[in-house]
Each structure stands twice: as structure tokens, then as C-alpha cells.
Design goal:
single chain, 303 residues, alpha+beta, Immunoglobulin-like, 60s Ribosomal Protein L30, Chain: A, 2 domains, 5-stranded antiparallel sheet, 31% helix, elongated
Length: 303
Amino acid sequence: MRSVSGQSFRRWVVRWAALLACGLMPLTPVWAETFRNQFSGAAWHPETSVFECRLVQPIAQFGAAIFTRRAGEEQRFVLHSNNRVLAAGEAGIRAENPEWREMVDPQALGVVSASGDDALAMDWQGSQKLASALREGRRLVFSHRAWAETDRPVNVMVEPVGFRDGFTTFTDCLSDLLPVNFDQVERTALYFPAGFNDIPETEVDKLNRIAEYAKADEKVVRLYVDGHTDGTGLRAENLELSQERAELITQYLTDRGIPQDRIITRWHGERYPVGSNRTEEGRTENRRVTVRLERSDDRLSAR
């Protein structure tokens, strides 16, 4: 029995020393405040749509660990806090085996900046590193200082329970994401060469993305199409040219499945320049048709 107890003690010392060397344990002998789930509550929950893929583990009394990817953006990992818990600064991350697995030395995974207000966030490369550790069945531990008591360490534990199945659902969702999100198509400018009243090939991809998003998002209730020209030529001719271009864009959108009664088409000629008509660069900016999407929740928030 003495031999077994001695081995256990030596393992504990080795592990403690490894944590200390990684800078993941405090030098002062204070108890850390730890946020973690019980085994039964440590599951991962996929949330999938064509707009965003999420894989979420709620963390009791803290917030949630979230792998997320919005349409048109890269994958991220976010450690979201419901209340201000962590101080601003750099938090350490380590991967370690849960209690039910054989004890091995923890693996330092680097540091991440904490804002102090809401969350820790990691980019695609960092999130993949965390996902790899969770797939191997290792727990993630984020270590930092408390916001209210800067000498008190805080540990937030993210468990690997059910992660593999959840991450499979998450990665399957990625292939169905739209190519863009609402922020990226809410307002789009389509530019025309001088005297040109056909859709330039350079602008077709923009239009296709607008049409694809507007058809997928049932909250999009209006599309405003506004035609503009530069200040070259007669005003009456410019007004007519801006009308031709705006109606051309409207027709393209309706041909791709956008109901015409959801589109409001307007034309303004040279009345609303965004650049100087005295320069070629400015005139290029003015020869445009803008497409703006309006969502139902935008209308409610404006009241």
C-alpha cells in the first residue's frame, strides 16, 4: 500500500510541476474558482441552418463554449460568459484527461486574449486545435484571473462528452452554408462602364449571391433597387439610363426566383453622386445600381 500511495503522490507532484512550468497554475496557494458541468450535463448540442452552424456546450453558472461558423465567414471558437467573470488579459489553455481516464501530463495549447466583458474568441486555426483535443477525449481548461478579485484564479472546464458525434453534425452543416451572410449582402453596389446598359460580367456573382440569400431568408421582405449615373451628358438622358440599369437588375433578380412584388425599383439619374464627377475615379463610383435588402426584424427595431 505504501508503494501505491507513493506512486500516486509522485504523479501528483509531476503533474503540478508541469502545470506550473506552463504558467497555468498560480504561484500563490489560493483556491481557484472553477466552472464546470457534471458529467450528465456536459453534452454538446448542434444548432444547424444555412445561415450558421453552431456546436454548443452550456457551462453551469458561467455561459457556454461554442464552435461557430456563419455563412461567408471562417470558423471560430467562443467561450461566452453570461456575466463578467474573467479579467481582461491573456488566459492560458491546456488539454488534460478527465478523471475517468488514465492520468497523463497536461498539454499547453497556448494563450488567448480575454476582453473582460464577454468572451474569449479564437480564429479558425485556434478552434481546430481545440477541436482536435476534444476529439481525442481530452478536457479543455481555460485559466485566468477573476474580474472582481485579480489575485483569485479562475478555471473554466469544457468537457469532451459527446463531442465527436456533435462535431460530425457540425461539419456536415458546413457544406450547406450559404456563401454569404446578411451583413455581406445587405447593401451592394453594382458598377457599370460609361454608356453601358447591360449587366457587366464582373457584377454577376454579386447578383447571384444576393438572389440566393434573399430566397433563403424568409425575413427578407423588401429589396430596393436604385439606379444612378455619373454627371456626364444630359440630365434627361442620365435619368433614362439609370432607369434602364435599375430595371435590368430587377429583371435579373425576378428571373432567379425573387417575387417582383418584393422589389421596389427606383432611378435617380445623376442626383445622388457618391464621388466627384470631376475625376474618372469619382465618375466610376457614381455609375452604379445599389441593391438593399430589408428584413422584417429591421423594421421592428426601427419603431
